[in-house]
Specification:
It is a single chain. The chain is α+β, with helices and mostly antiparallel strands and 635 residues long. 19% of the residues lie in helices and 40% in strands. Strand 5 and strand 6 form a beta hairpin.
Length: 635
Amino acid sequence: MLPVIYDGTGQAQAERFTLRAGKLSLVYEAGLIRYVSAGNREILRGVYAAVRDQNWDTIPGVLRDVSVDAQADSFHVRFTSEHQQGELHFVWHGEIVGTADSTIRFTFAGTAQSTLQTNRTGFCILHPMTLGGQACVIEHADGSIETGVFPDKVAPVPPYSNIRTIRHAVLPGVDAEVRMEGDLYELEDQRNWSDASYKTYCTLHQQPQPVTLVAGATINQSVTIRLLGDPADVPLVKQGNILTINPAQRLKIPFIGLGMASHDEPLTEREYERLAALYLGHFRHELYFTDDMEDRLYEAVEDANVLEIDLEVGAHFGENLRAELARLNKALEDLDHGDLYILVRRHGEGATNPETFKLVQEALDDLQSVFLVAGTDDNFETLNVERWPAGLAERAWYTSTPQVHAFDNSTMIETFPAMASVAAFAREITGAAVMVSPITLKPRWDRAVVREMLAAGKLPGDVDVRQTSLFGAGWVVGVIGALARGGAESATFFETTGVYGVMESDYGTPFADQFPSHPGRVYPMWHVFADVGEFMEGRVLASDSSQPLVFNGLALREGSRYRVLVANHTVEPQAVTIIGLDGRWSLKALDETTAESALSDPEGYRDSAGQVVEAEDGRLVIELRPYAIARLDKV
């Protein structure tokens, strides 16, 4: 058992194997392959097989009979994966063979054990987003050839369909080819959902879905990856952990806010004090036109006023728009509020319809300090597809979560560059300031439903135990840096307290057997928000991680004050060399050795002295325990 503080589970991650097939290398993990590379050139981010039901839910599999035979330049992996949920029962056998001629073949042989309905059961192939703008050659299923590029800007619709092979250059004279057989395949831009990849999947969008498989029906597919040309000169590259800081390039820190708690317990005096220590810019309140709408809005305004911050209102309009607007107008006229941002959402609309937005503008035009925001309570993909006329709104919003298609720690860390790219592209297509709201670990359930479940003592399925973990705190470090690079105006994370919060409420949780928290304690991510909040009047200094899937940094400056946060995203200890520092620094680490004091007495922990370390020749080496977050302050 690992410490629960690591990632909230206390469970060891699946074992990883680094394998080689000639000049190709990859990581095998729990029935999938990751990071297929030739030297330091990543060819594929991953290949995996998904079993999905008729609702697009991915049904997890249980592996058995796993064997891994690894040689110096070849390997052979076998396993069986069984997927069972409700009436769905599907079993497939996987085989992955790597040979010395730089070829990898992954086969999928599955059988329906029951009659079932499914959407896209079979392979998904992920090309890394670093290929954006690079030329590729597509061979279609009918044998025709198309030349094109991997999309540079986030593509709203699949750019290529009916694919048999995708080929692109890796090095001069060396190409990588990926061949898919057993179904028709299509490529879409996964950055729409914050994945850092282009995904080629089986079963085309336009084909009838779901598909009924009778018991005994089989699915057989294969994916073959190979190097073409002369791969003899492909270098073998070993990279160290180097964080390079560029103080000349400075970025705006997004205004940071939190969602208001979905549970009904009011904030206590101590909770107000701990929220004040984060120097937040705003709260987000979910407004439904229920009988108690006015009372809940009044409470939200009061909480924001106590902390002297702004209020985002996610307004859930329905069919009776004019009546709801009249009711909201009256409620706001009677309230003493600061700046208030209304995120216009109407039932049945993916992104804000321009006509809806104009009606809201007309109805609320006379209100002071009220600003309207157009966007979507869905992923960026909805905003990308349902684009509105230029100049409709001065601000635009969309939500973000790292767990739309996969749910493991590594996938969540991979999302950072995609989040930066999406924020920048959202600014481009809307011509508006971008607000990412909310940012959650899991795809968010409707808050009205969540509130009912919590009141009934039921733990909603969109709760993630990583909320309370060091891993979750390190993920926040990466997200803030990504959104700063993308130029986001503001970022609304999680909630204030409770199972979605940055700290447990003083009242505690009824889910202690399912959710690792204690009454009155903060979560590790609270310290990250405090670390950044203390520099909110400053800037982010550009930084570059040599291995962003292993660690990331966030460098901050405000006047003569400097702070650097470094997060280890792995269960292994890491040594990181920071380049671009000079002089003496105070080092404090949040890890399993300090978590008890940091979470139970956060004020005392923050006031305690750190270890003084000194950079030499512009370099400083720090040691990070598993999932640790180090904070360096210039002395």
